[in-house]
Amino acid sequence: MEFLSGAFISFINNLPEGLQIEGLRYLMGAGGVFLLTWVVFASALSNRRIRNPIPADRRYQQILREVRHSGITIFVFVFAYSFTEYALFQIWGTSVFKIYADVSTYGWAYLIFSVLLWTIGLDTYFYWTHRMMHHKKFYRFFHLTHHRSHNPTPFTAYSFAPPEAVLVYLFVPLFFSLVPMHEVAFVAAMLLQIIRNALAHCGYEVFPKGWARHPILGLFATVSHHDMHHEKSNGNYGFYFTVWDRLMGTEHSHYLERFDQATGNITPEIVQRA
């Protein structure tokens, strides 16, 4: 009982700052990408729409649902952070999160490298947990809420059921208990994550022609890559990269053609499914 009361007090103490930080990050990422792709540059990107847009009568209902679920996700993130930090402190008597404030501790080169290491680690973690959530035994419990957005918007980024939000969060303590990371690097990595996440769900192909077929650039996943995942509800499980999908044979066979259609490299076939 003492442990639970302590964990609850830790959560309450962290709640205001945590909601402010996570809420602002979500607003900057999902809201910023929505503003740029769906409002400011909507006309310029009209020929880059991957699938037909969501009908107007359903569009705002979907966005409201996504924002509501995203709010719950943010709350879960704050709770999970408070609980794990308190629990690990109780076990080891000190914080096991290797976050440091002085750049000179490891230098600038390591600071930049740690963001790259985070990106590679997160992509690997995401691929395998993502595939697990698509297993028929786990799909409804973890991932069905996210896939209710069959034709996603930038606000789909954090539209999770609470169990999926917990699973997504668990990468943070796992990484920070193993890898030292500067505060600035952490902020940069988290901003990169939400912006990349929102872009992957924006529905417009923002990557240039030829990107997906380039031997190096093609290793970085495009918007079309993840959009096909939502359309088909399987395959293309990667987040930042296409590497794991290619190695494991889970990349959709028509991904490159879909990317070419979205970028105008070939005559587009309008995808009717919304």
What does this structure look like?
This protein is mostly helical. The chain has one domain. The chain is 61% helix and 1% strand. It has 11 helices and 2 strands. A two-stranded parallel ribbon has the order 1-2. α1 packs antiparallel against α2, α1 crosses α8 and α2 (56-92) packs across α6. The chain is globular. The termini are far apart.
Concise structural overview:
The protein is mainly α and 274 residues long. The protein is built from eleven helices and two strands; from the N terminus they run ααβαααααβαααα.
Any descriptors?
274 residues; mainly alpha; two-stranded parallel sheet; 11 helices; globular; disordered C terminus
The chain-level structural class is mainly alpha
Query: How much is the average pLDDT?
Result: 89
Amino- and carboxy-terminal Cα gap: 50 Å
Structural domains: how many: 1
> Spans with pLDDT under 50 lasting ≥5 residues?
270-274
Number of strands: 2
| Elements, N to C (H/E) | HHEHHHHHEHHHH
Give the topology, please.
Layout: H1 2-40, H2 56-92, E1 99-100, H3 108-133, H4 139-142, H5 144-147, H6 162-169, H7 171-176, E2 181-182, H8 183-200, H9 223-232, H10 243-248, H11 255-263
Parallel strand pairs: 1-2
